[in-house]
TrEMBL record:
<feature type="compositionally biased region" description="Basic and acidic residues">
    <location>
        <begin position="708"/>
        <end position="721"/>
    </location>
</feature>
<feature type="signal peptide">
    <location>
        <begin position="1"/>
        <end position="18"/>
    </location>
</feature>
<feature type="region of interest" description="Disordered">
    <location>
        <begin position="636"/>
        <end position="731"/>
    </location>
</feature>
<keyword id="KW-0677">Repeat</keyword>
<feature type="domain" description="Ig-like">
    <location>
        <begin position="220"/>
        <end position="308"/>
    </location>
</feature>
<keyword id="KW-0732">Signal</keyword>
<keyword id="KW-0393">Immunoglobulin domain</keyword>
<keyword id="KW-0130">Cell adhesion</keyword>
<keyword id="KW-0597">Phosphoprotein</keyword>
<dbReference type="InterPro" id="IPR050488">
    <property type="entry name" value="Ig_Fc_receptor"/>
</dbReference>
<dbReference type="Pfam" id="PF13895">
    <property type="entry name" value="Ig_2"/>
</dbReference>
<keyword id="KW-1015">Disulfide bond</keyword>
<dbReference type="GO" id="GO:0045121">
    <property type="term" value="C:membrane raft"/>
</dbReference>
<dbReference type="InterPro" id="IPR003598">
    <property type="entry name" value="Ig_sub2"/>
</dbReference>
<feature type="domain" description="Ig-like">
    <location>
        <begin position="401"/>
        <end position="486"/>
    </location>
</feature>
<dbReference type="GO" id="GO:0007155">
    <property type="term" value="P:cell adhesion"/>
</dbReference>
<feature type="domain" description="Ig-like">
    <location>
        <begin position="312"/>
        <end position="391"/>
    </location>
</feature>
Length: 731
């Protein structure tokens, strides 16, 4: 039963699930009345979802509307439509709108729709003051209510019969802007207004013009007046008076200034009148300006003044402008067509002019110290005029010049420039120096010194180096010439080489001669010979008036093996290094002989011992064959000896002879050496004497004993001695 109920429940759930299937066909967004709305008009943004369902069932819809990506409206209902109402559209509502519908875990977005609210609200202009003084500023505030930044504000200042002045202000974060306009001199009644702008996509939209604001300008003071007495026919020497005055509304930091050609003559502060007077001179002609200032306000009045010349400037003349010392100099001062004046002659100085004489003329004996500028002054009716300066130059004669090398030594390195100086003990500049090199010359004028420098870059090896200089100034004595300076041209070292005798290989103890030479270079030459090590060792050095040097090293040793080089230098201070040479010190001939003797003699001894050992070994191998041939005789001899020892006290033994004979044979065999190996075996018959056991005289008998005798290959020598060695077991 329970199983049946479960099956029924599952089937009913499947049927219900199949009935709740839906899908989004589309989501639409629209604007009423249209996508372009006038500012202030109502506007509706409608979002509609087109959904297909399997059956008719309730479905909750979450509808959201976005403007420029920001959420502006949200609705939850069972319907697929939503409406966003804007009762008064403003320019801030301009933008891109999009809506999204979410239902049953599914979401669908509409396309984007651009809405443009045309027109902007009218701006409001407010002025901080309605009345201002000249020099002050007008502060204005322009606001665009209900508009959203960024915005642009344009302020306009207008006055009668003039072009409006504008100021543009950009506001990124607020819908109002504040500016200040200065009030200039002459401003009377000013009118201000403003308007706003905003950017819509790629265009600017402009608002209506704001309300107009009137500003009244008041003068803090009136335009000044300038009075000059006398007003005309002003002649030098007369007194001229100036008076500048104004009327102020309020005494507050008022300043009056009098100027002539932009040069301030006088000024007063917190006063309404300025007075100034002076003795008229020709320099007083020009434009005079009276200026009144208070804060930023200022007013001016100008007047031109012409002063008539009473007498012209004096003229100073000299008998000569350039002269020798100790000669007479006359200075005269005069005024054209005018005689009644007081004259004075002065010498100009940096600190002050020095009065020489109150007279029209001055005569003096000139010295070098009188060189300088002179003027004369003329005075008439307190008017003093000064002449143009006259320059006088008094010359002392030049002394005999001396020429020298700047470095001190009269020499120069080939390829380097030569610096020469020509100096005088006395002589008044400017001085003209002339340098001579053979037939060539070069001039140089010095204005403030008694020395001149000369640079000769064309130095050659075959130059004779004869230099001299001459000097002259404006003195009548003329030019004087120095003595001739001879210059030595030093040729730098070139191509240094090093050689040795013997070259390359030297026996120990032998003498070696080193030769260091140069191809070119001025004497003396300093030679140095080095041996190349971790730190090169100086072996020899010497200065020679020659292009080569020889050094003999008496005894060379094995430690002298190595690399050698030499360096040559002279007064050119340029060192030239040779290519290195390698010397190998080997053993001398007698040293080789000694070493050979000490090495070969022990080797020969070892070889002889080896041969002897080999012979002995071979001899021992052949010994048993001889013992067998001697066994019978040895047995008999032994028995006989034993019997005689028991029976005869004067026993005579032949063993010593036999042993001596054996030793003799051994020595002979050893001397034969290897020849024994190739000897032939020969048998011979020998006589053997035996002792009588009863001490009878020695009996001679004949026994045949076979003994081995080795015969040399050449058959030249035969050993005829036979040795019989007694054995203890002989019979």
């Amino acid at each position: 039963m329970y199983l049946a109920l479960l099956v029924i429940f599952l089937q009913c759930s499947e049927i219900c699930t199949q009935k709740r299937v839906f899908t989004f066909n589309a989501v639409h967004i629209e604007v009423q009345p249209s996508a372009k709305v006038e500012n202030g008009a109502p506007m509706s943004i409608i979002c509609h979802a087109d959904i297909s369902k399997s059956t008719d069932f309730n479905l909750q819809h979450n509808i959201t509307i976005f403007k420029d990506g920001k959420l502006v409206f949200m609705s939850v209902s069972g319907k697929g439509d939503a409406r966003y109402e804007v009762p008064m559209a403003r320019s801030s509502h301009t933008g891109d709108y999009q809506c999204a519908v979410e239902a049953g875990g599914k979401i669908k977005h509409s396309d984007s729709l651009h809405v443009w609210v045309t027109g902007m609200t009218k701006p409001i202009l407010i002025a901080e003051k309605k009345e201002v003084f000249e020099g002050e500023v007008v502060k204005l505030r322009c606001e665009l209510p209900e508009e959203v930044p960024p915005l642009y504000f344009v302020f306009q200042k207008m006055k009668v019969n003039s072009t409006p002045k504008q100021k543009l202000q950009e506001e990124l974060y607020r819908n109002f802007s504040v500016v200040e306009f200065p009030v200039d001199e002459g401003d009377d009644i000013l009118q201000f207004d403003c308007f706003g702008k905003r950017r819509v996509r790629f265009e600017f939209e402009t608002s209506l013009t704001s309300n107009k604001t009137l500003i009244t300008v008041k003068e803090p003071f009136i335009k000044p007046t300038l009075h000059i007495k006398p007003s005309s026919n002003i002649t030098e020497g007369k007194e001229i008076r100036f008076e500048c005055s104004t009327v102020v509304a309020k005494m507050r930091d008022i300043e009056i200034i009098l100027l002539r050609n932009k040069t301030i003559l006088s000024s007063v502060r917190d006063q309404t009148t300025l007075k100034y007077s002076a003795v008229a001179t020709l320099e007083d002609s020009g434009e005079y300006l009276c200026k009144v200032e208070e804060g930023k306000a200022s007013k001016t009045t100008t007047h031109n003044v012409v002063v008539t010349e009473l007498f012209p400037k004096p003229i100073l003349t000299a008998s000569m402008n350039e002269l020798d010392e100790h000669k007479e100099l006359t200075l005269s001062c005069s005024i054209k067509d005018f005689q009644n004046a007081s004259f004075s002659i002065l010498r100009k100085h940096s600190s002050r002019d020095i009065l020489l004489r109150n007279s029209r003329n001055l005569t003096m004996r000139a010295s070098v110290n009188d060189t300088g500028s002179y003027i004369c002054k003329a005075e008439v009716n307190r008017i003093v005029k000064e002449s143009k300066p006259v320059t006088i130059r008094v010359y002392a004669p030049v002394s005999m010049p001396s020429i020298s090398v700047f470095s001190g030594l009269p020499e120069v390195v080939l390829g380097r420039p030569l610096n020469l100086t020509c100096c005088l003990m006395m002589g008044t500049p400017p001085i003209t120096f002339t340098f001579y090199k053979g037939n060539k010359n070069k001039k140089k004028i010095v204005t403030n010194n008694t020395c001149a420098a000369f640079l000769d870059k064309d130095i050659r090896q075959n130059d004779k180096g004869q230099y001299k200089c001459g000097a002259k100034n404006h003195h009548s004595s003329g030019m004087k010439t120095s003595k001739v300076l001879n210059i030595t041209v030093i040729v730098p070292i070139r191509n240094t080489s090093l050689g040795s005798v013997p070259y390359g290989v030297v026996e120990d103890g032998r003498e070696t001669t080193f030769l260091c030479s140069v191809e070119e270079g001025s004497w003396p030459i300093h030679f140095r010979i080095f041996r190349k090590m971790d730190r090169d060792i100086l072996l020899f050095e010497r200065s020679e008036h020659a292009d080569r040097v020889v050094w003999q090293k008496k005894e060379m040793s094995r430690q002298d093996t190595g690399t050698y080089y030499c360096i040559a230098s002279n007064r050119a201070n340029v060192s030239a290094k040779s290519h290195p040479i390698t010397i190998n010190v080997i053993l001398a001939s007698w040293q080789k002989g000694v070493i050979t003797a000490f090495v070969l003699i022990p080797i020969a001894g070892v070889m002889i011992l080896a041969v002897w050992w080999f012979w002995c070994k071979k001899k021992n191998a052949k010994g048993p064959s001889m013992e067998m041939s001697r066994s019978a005789l040895a047995t008999n001899s032994t028995s006989e000896k034993l019997s005689r020892q028991h029976n005869d006290g004067d026993y005579y033994s032949g063993s010593g002879y036999i042993e001596d004979g054996e030793n003799h044979m051994k020595s002979t065999d050893e001397n034969k050496g290897p020849d024994l190996e190739s000897a032939e075996v020969e048998y011979t018959e020998v006589e053997v004497s035996t002792l009588d056991p009863h001490r009878a005289p020695v009996q001679k008998g004949t026994e045949t004993v076979y003994s081995e005798i080795r015969k040399a290959n050449n058959d030249s020598v035969e050993n005829r001695h036979s040795r019989i060695q007694g054995r203890p077991d002989a019979t």
